[in-house]
Amino acid sequence: MKILVTGGCGYIGSHTILRLLEGGHDATVVDNLSNSQYESLLRVQKIAGRELVFLEADITDPVALDRVFEHNPVDAVIHFAGLKAVGESVQEPLRYYRNNVTGTLNLLESMDAHDVRTLVFSSSATVYGNNPQMPLKEGYARGATNPYGRTKQQIEEILIDLQASDPRWRMALLRYFNPVGAHPSGLIGEDPLGPPNNLFPFVSQVAVGRRDTVNVFGSDYPTPDGTGVRDYIHVMDLAAGHSAALDYLSDHQGVHTWNLGSGQGHSVLEIIRSFEKAAGRSIPYNLADRRPGDAPVSLADPSSAFRDLGWKAAETLESMCADSWRWQENNPNGYRTEAVPAVP
Ligand code: NAD
Ligand code: WQD
Q1: In whole angstroms, what is the distance from residue 48 CA to residue 22 CA?
Q2: pLDDT digits 0-9 by tens, 40-52
Q3: What CATH code is assigned to 2-180+232-260?
Q4: Ligand closest to the CA atom of residue 299
Q5: Which residue from 10, 135, 194, 285 lies 20 to 30 Å from 111 (Cα-Cα)?
Q6: Which of 124, 311, 156, 310 is CA-nearest to residue 236?
Q7: 128 in ligand 2 pocket by Cβ < 6 Å?
Q8: Which of 35, 101, 148 to mutate to test the pocket of ligand 1 (most atoms within 8 A of CB)?
Q9: In this predicted model, what pLDDT tens digit does every residue of 226-236 receive, in sequence order?
Q10: Å from CA of 10 to ligand 1 middle
Q11: Where are the domains of the chain?
Q12: pTM metric for this prediction
């Protein structure tokens, strides 16, 4: 198939495109490079030994999107493009709603106009909000607690309404839990611009010496060691989940929602210890206050994805840490060639 991938230069997109190319699909990538570098796709092409088409464009520009579809006929779209920082979304809600929601509306209108009605969408466990019933199942009520999460929730609703109006649409809503890790080559990985908001990239930047100490946000949660527990999912497992969802859509209409998580929980201290082992060095940390808005535990019930797609997480905490570390150690400054100064 020919697949249009929005946001394909980013972390999850680049790993998924590699999987698509290796599976014999063709990829056209649209990205505005607002949170990524084109270098990621140069490396994807190097690993795959195949070429793709890259078009620098912004999904909030409907004219540019129409041109993309007009000149690049595709069979399906995987839609990763979006802003994803929770704290930033609280400070700049309009930018988030415009980029994520308006961008998706433009994409859907262009798809419809060009008779492309198969879509895999990057949703998030964040749509469950602070629901304490663990593990989280797809049928539970949504209740996102911040503007970023509400963009995902609103987009899910838009997709459901659109499919109800026209049964030709085939849609997969993939709710990722906590994506981590990197391709085992160490050539592509997560490369956040500025201080990482998420635990894994922060820990790996401390391990490589770009930052001094990990702040552990909360040590008095009702969890075995008092620190937050999450369902970390290797990005290569996520990539396989996208490919399985695309296969499923080739013979199923309708909207289908799947959690992509491992079903296993790991605490912040477990992550730090496991990363220390992978990196062979100690990682200084400091027990800090809770981060506002954080839930004590977040865990997926991934059984629907296994039942429908035959997909389940195959990687381990060890491989998540080893692969993240290989990427970080080989690319201490990410995709940038010049050194990023260490934070004082
Ligand atoms: P990322 O920032 O690495 O990738 C997103 C890509 O989209 C970037 O390359 C960015 O430049 C591009 N982009 C953003 N706005 C755009 C626009 N208007 N037009 C064109 N391109 C645009 O993020 P990621 O971690 O790869 O996440 C991919 C998707 O998965 C996002 O939608 C994110 O919300 C969702 N998601 C991520 C996580 C996570 O923790 N990484 C968890 C759940 C869901
Ligand atoms: C994991 C654990 C923190 C950083 C976020 C988004 C969610 C989804 C995935 C997009 C928590 C603790 C973190 C640090 C720490 N993204 N932590 N020190 O918050 O589970 O989920 O990313 O959809 O929407 O909210 O992930 O990696 O930020 O935190 O102690 O420097 O690590 O408190 O327990 P989170 P995270």
Answers
A1: 6
A2: 999 999 999 999 9
A3: 3.40.50.720
A4: 2
A5: 10
A6: 311
A7: no
A8: 35
A9: 999 999 999 99
A10: 6
A11: 2-180+232-260
A12: 0.98
